[in-house]
Amino acid sequence: MLKNIDASQLKVGMYIHNLSCDWMTHPFVRNRLLLKTEEEIRKIVDAGIHDVVIDCSRGLDVDHAPTVEETRIRTEAEIVGLAEKPVLPARTTMAEELKRATLIRHQAAGLVRTVMQDARLGKAIEIDRVGSVVEDITASILRNPGALLGLLRIKTKDDYTFLHSVSVCTLLVAFCRARGLDATTTYQAGLGGLVHDTGKALVPDEILNKPGRLTEEEFAIIRKHPQDGYDILKQSQGIGPIPLDITLHHHERYDGSGYPGRQAGEGISQLAQMAAIVDVYDAITADRCYHKGMAAADALRKLYEWSKFHFNPQFVQEFMRCVGIYPVGTMVLLESGRLGVVVEAHETNLLAPKVNVFFHTKRDSYIKPETVDLSRGLGFGGGDKIVRHESPEKWQVDPARFMALAA
After folding, report:
1. Which of 10, 131, 144, 206 sits at a 20 to 30 Å CA gap from 91?
2. Rounded-to-integer distance, Cα 201 and Cα 121, Å
3. CA 372 – CA 338 distance, rounded (Å)
4. pTM as predicted
5. Which segments constitute the HD-GYP domain (predicted)?
6. What are the backbone angles phi and psi of residue 323, rounded to the nearest 5°?
């Protein structure tokens, strides 16, 4: 039986099934291990890990600890309450924005590649060029945030480093918009998102793309990238305090367990706190050479659980409303047995988005694609509801093909 326990309850002889944190946080070669020494427990606590999952069939038990399923049910009930808050509507349709968003995605990734190359060569970063791309991203988010955000869910292991920065920029701009921040602050935050990982240009490729867990020495090199990025950008003409702050502090954590300054609580600026949330969200949803990305809906639930310690809970909840309980691009199974891809959040009910359906699981065949508005009743284009999100790999389909339907 799998149970959730607090790290303070750990004892030698327990079998850890999962260290409930993003994989770059913990100091172990693997997520699953039998605790044999007090030193291993101390490492877990020192890494700022608060919740762990233990397997009681393979090690010591903890009486009265909730099972993983009980925790999941409680979390789902709390998330349902978040789904009823209003969100901002899109100004254009998904189909109208996808072509523009595709071009912006390509141009932005190319720019980040250039920025990293310049940083590696010791050249100054051309902030004006970066700024024009941020303006394009912002304009796309204002028209229809789902188009670019949906496209950026698709990354390969080779282009991850560049597209991750584009994703963080885009998510931060959308987050700022959802929180009602002014245009200047939103622009500066987007700029910070696009350049936040500049310091990784100084990390050797064999460490950055290592297909396995990092050693403590390698992890120490990775942890230098916020300071390195800050130092590089400080030499760039026209860089403002917000991008510098985001670059230096996007790995800080609310409980003080982050780096490089172990800042905590409101000692971390609001925009750096927001950047930390979107940075982790994008990282854990992407496939890497050493990690299989999790579904966006699962990642949001993880962030919600981690917000008890690592993130500002209010900001995490606002971020979840920003991207949707089922983010655009998520493949979902409907009660009718149809598969679809989420294309637009409903303004007041995030559990009832618009979905482009394209496959019938009961018939095991493709169907004529159509848009279903789950907020509407039977006979009015709705009359269905989401059962759960699904893995595209399981059904061997590419949901991105159905983000926009032919007119």
Report:
1. 131
2. 9
3. 11
4. 0.85
5. 139-335
6. -95, -15
Could you give the strand order of the β-sheet that contains 33-34, starting from the edge strand earlier in sequence? 2-6, 51-55, 15-19, 33-34
Q: Walk along the chain (407 residues) and give the pLDDT tens digit of each residue.
A: 888 888 889 999 999 988 776 655 555 656 788 999 898 888 888 777 888 888 899 999 998 888 888 888 888 777 777 666 666 767 788 888 989 999 999 999 999 999 999 999 998 888 989 999 999 999 999 999 888 998 888 777 667 888 999 999 999 999 999 999 999 999 999 999 999 999 999 999 888 888 777 788 888 999 999 999 999 999 988 899 999 999 999 999 999 989 999 999 999 999 999 999 999 999 999 877 667 788 888 899 989 989 988 999 999 999 998 888 888 889 999 999 999 999 888 777 778 889 999 999 999 889 999 999 998 876 555 678 899 999 888 888 888 788 876 54
d(CA 189, CA 371): 34
What is the rounded distance in angstroms from the CA atom of residue 331 to the CA atom of residue 357? 9
183 is written with which tokens? 């245009």
Question: Count of residues for the chain?
Answer: 407
d(CA 279, CA 170): 11
Residue 127 tokens read as 């902030």
147 burial (CB, 10 Å; 0-12 / 13-18 / 19+) is buried
**Is 165 in contact with 114 (CB distance < 8 Å)?**
no
